[in-house]
Amino acid sequence: MAKKITMQKIADHLGVSKFVVSKSLSGKEGVNETTRERVIQAASQLGYFTQKNAYMQNAKRSTQTSAGDRNKQSVLVLMPNIRSQTQDSLYWGKIVDGIALALDEQGLGMVIVSEHRADNFVNILNPGGLLGLVGVGTISTSLLLEVHRIGLPMVLIDHEDPLIPSDTVFANNMDSMSRLTNHLLGIGHTHQHFIGPIRYSRSFRDRWIGFRSSLEEGGLQPQSGDDELLLQEGMDSIILHEELKQWLLKRRKANNMPTALLCGNDFIALTVCNVLREEGLSVPGDISVTGFDNIDDAARGIPPLTTVHVPKEAMGRAAVEKLLSRINSPSSPLEKILIAADIVHRDSVAEPRS
Fold it and tell me: How far is CA 31 from CA 38, 44, 170, 222, in A?
């Protein structure tokens, strides 16, 4: 039988006191952020968080509720990236719609929180009235640690934490981007380029991996992982627009323009189309462009955008179903659920000019 991982063992592993480990894992003040991160990482590597009932407070709530009680229960929906992950977003808003519909069908309420600081989050959280949590988009480890600490069941959509274990729901990003890349190869595009910050989210990284794998399997060399369009910070439209213009200028001077640009999402692809048009290039006459997600604006683009349809509402529904299943079977293995996504063919792709 494996030995239990205690706070003392974590302290011994790091050469710090048990007091430091306790404060770090409880989210209390008195420990600097670097030390806290070291403790969390060590705890994860040693298997502390995966132990049954490890590090969890006895929250005063019942995981099994009667039909009458369930009408008084709610699920917390955490969306901490308030700059881009909001209910008004053409992507995230659809996911929240799916969550809301699935909860309503079960007679459950929904509480949306956009707090991104762990200390504030603890103050507003009342686990006694919550069945569980659905996290939408990127969420910091410190916030997820607080959820784990109180023993609140959680499912994450479009995000997974390298340290805090949980059930997750994603679109099948890798396979979908691979199919899109192969489609472009099939019509003659042997010089493709991926545009998108691969450190922005797990989904972007998986899309890049699918793109790269398909080119390599076709005997082609994708751009290197240190390409400037892969290492962008964030999704600021003004910065992205300027960086794309500079990148195009360099490529045109070097006479090394790709025939197809595959973008990490539709927002990037629509920006790319605008920049190309400003620079006197035609889509798809001079260069083909594809997106990902199939937001409503993709069909209204000039030209309408070839993209991958992510069933966003289905992702929200799947997360609710998984959360309710987790509440009923807390000790069952964690799952990563992949929702199939399909290519939507529109007018932004054509065969390359001979």
Answer: 11, 18, 34, 44
